[in-house]
Amino acid sequence: MKELTKAEETLLLTILQLRDIAYGVAIKRHIQKNTGKALPYGTLYFILEQLTKKGYVKRFIGESKPERGGRSRIYYTLTSEGNLALKHAYVMQQKIWNGYAELTWGEKTSR
């Protein structure tokens, strides 16, 4: 399995956390709130498109709303492949970070 970029990992985790309200603006706001970094919309949608092509994300169109001028939101959800990619990234990070606290602060970590 090809490793996720940090940006892909961040977007997948955000979509997972937002669940049924994962649409462009909500994703952008969630990332900015939790990382302190503003992700430009062009970058956001480019990465979402790449994740869709890889089969990690599926998009669907919500209901049109009068307050949105009759336009529909596009929502995103993780696929089973997306969940597997996140799990793989998590396991890899755990392996890389294992022992960090002990090596830097003298705290014991479980192995």
What does this structure look like?
With 111 residues, this protein is of the alpha+beta class. It has a single domain, classed as Winged helix-like DNA-binding domain superfamily/Winged helix DNA-binding domain (Arc Repressor Mutant, subunit A), CATH 1.10.10.10. Helix content is 56%, strand content 14%. It has helices spanning 6-18, 24-35, 41-53, 80-97, 100-105; strands spanning 57-64, 72-78. α1 crosses α2 (24-35) and α1 (6-18) crosses α3. It starts with 5 loop residues before the first helix and ends in a 6-residue tail after the last helix. The mean pLDDT is 92.
Q: Strand content of the residues, in percent?
A: 5-15%
Remind me, CATH topology?
Answer: Arc Repressor Mutant, subunit A
CATH H-level superfamily title: Winged helix-like DNA-binding domain superfamily/Winged helix DNA-binding domain
List the secondary-structure elements in sequence, H or E. HHHEEHH
Number of strands: 2
Largest sheet properties: 2 strands, antiparallel
Distance between the termini: 24 Å
**Oligomer classification:** single chain
Rounded average pLDDT: 92
Helix content range: 55-70%
- Rounded to the nearest angstrom, the radius of gyration is 17 Å
Principal-axis shape: elongated
What CATH architecture would you give?
Answer: Orthogonal Bundle
Order of the strands making up the biggest sheet = 1-2
What is the number of independent domains? 1
Low-confidence stretches at least 5 residues in length (pLDDT < 50)?
A: none
**CATH class, anyone?**
Mainly Alpha
